[in-house]
Amino acid sequence: MIIGKLQAHEPHIVYSSTESLPFSGPNGDVSIYQVILSNDGKKEVYDVACAIRIPFAKIDQYKVTANPLLNVSGAVSGDSLNIQVPNLNPSESIQISLLASGSQNLPARPQVTARGRGTVGSEQGRGNEKSWFETAPSVALGAATFALIASTLALRLIRSKSSKRDLSGPTDDQRTNLAYVCRIYGLLDLAEEYSTRMHETTYWAEADRLGQIAIDAGGEKMQLIESALLALIEYNQHIEQASKAVVYYNIALINRVKKDDAAYKKYLQLAKDSSAEEIGRRLNLDQRFM
């Protein structure tokens, strides 16, 4: 118990990253990476530094989501992003999102290293805890050894499950995903807008907005926006059914304007299959479908 308490009060930082599926486009590969850096100890960690490297890639943009009081700074150097944090309190964390491109195959995960004053960061869920034999006196009783190992294994299991839960759904930034699909289809003005937008964005509202932009623009831009909307559904497997229905609804509307009757009927049916109630309400009001 004494050894456990001493270890718990040591400075300790962990990091985790989500697996990304690179997209191969006409101009090479493009991918979005997310890394979370946290203080999971019981003591403040000062002079925190984190290096995120994506070999053979160009880091086009990055975004840090953190408490403004943390004064996080970042700088891109070649294929790496270097993050500096003056200090992290216990339970505080920051999220780093990166948009990278490259002519070669991009990795599924970035290479991450982290350190702070008096500690070296470890990957969450992979050997975060120190071995008992590195810190316990050699005269410790066998019973204490067994108890410490058992508690360590239990803590590792809890953190592993927590990591998987925390990195799904709530950490998904819809602005980042919209910027991604717009960028890979050459809609650079829209991609830049989503990347710099400060307020939250919903697929629901943006599908309606993009659909109207496509209809107003016509021609090549209309086709590119239609492709981006389809890619959004394929890229984000966790999109809500109602939002998916609105995306399909706008794709159907685009094809109605294009006078592609087969595609119009196909995507309108997909919209109804995703959320019949939402599409039913819209069809009763939307003059464009009458």
What features would you describe in this structure?
By secondary structure, this protein is of the alpha+beta class. The chain has two domains: 165 residues, Immunoglobulin-like (Sandwich), CATH 2.60.40; 116 residues, no CATH class. It is built from ten helices and eleven strands. Helix 4 packs across helix 7, helix 7 packs antiparallel against helix 8 and helix 8 packs antiparallel against helix 9.
What structural class is derived from the secondary structure elements? alpha+beta
Mean pLDDT level: 80
Give the helix tally.
Answer: 10
CATH architecture of the largest domain: Sandwich
Overall tally of domains: 2
Cα-based radius of gyration, to the nearest Å: 24 Å
Measured distance between first and last alpha carbons = 73 Å
> What CATH first level of the largest domain would be assigned?
Mainly Beta
How many E strands? 11
Please mark out the parts with pLDDT under 50 across 5 or more consecutive residues, or reply none.
Answer: 127-150, 157-171
Tags for this model:
alpha+beta; Immunoglobulin-like; 44% helix; elongated
Secondary structure elements and pairings:
Blueprint: H1 2-8, E1 13-17, E2 23-25, E3 28-39, E4 45-53, E5 58-65, E6 73-77, E7 80-88, E8 93-102, E9 111-116, E10 119-120, E11 122-123, H2 132-135, H3 142-166, H4 174-184, H5 188-196, H6 203-217, H7 219-235, H8 241-257, H9 261-274, H10 276-285
Parallel strand pairs: 1-11
Antiparallel strand pairs: 1-3, 2-3, 3-8, 4-7, 4-9, 5-8, 6-7, 9-10
